[in-house]
Structure prediction request, 199 residues.
Amino acid sequence: MRKLLLFLVPAGAMAQVICALGPGTSSYQPGQDQRPAGDAMQLASRVSAAEKTLCGSNCPEIALLRNPTAPNVALILDSGRARLVYSPQFFASVYSAFGDPGIVALLAHEAGHALDDAMGARWINSKWPPEIRADSWAGCLLAKSDLKPIDLHPALRAMVKSPPALQPAAWNVRVPAIRIGYTHCGGNPENFDRAASLK
Prediction:
């Protein structure tokens, strides 16, 4: 099982969903966690490579797992370990609508929670709620990833269609934070504005 990010919680703590993206709810059953599919691992590796450009060998780690009972895609802390758990059905629907860029964007948002917790950044407003800070980190990871400018539109559309379930915010609140992260980390602001303005 490849690790991507790590959070620590006190021993004996109950499982806690830090972030779940997308509509609907689920009765998550940890006992059904499985190794990730190869294609999901490949896309997660793209996000991890982008992350390493920011924190090198000091990046936090998390286990990527698939689970048919997962609430779409979620970052879960349990017994001192973090898991990024995804529903294969949800990823199939995201891929069908937005391709690889859509899945990369959702994974980048979840990784953003880890980066925000581990590093923080001067360009992120500390008064923003956690989901908006994670969006800004996601923008940064999208800029650092190998996505082409044409991939940015489907990546953003996937984020629009799969908002955080626990602390939802309007897209017009989220997009400026994503743009700040994207441009701060070397992304072309014109490419971002063009992709964000498409319907």
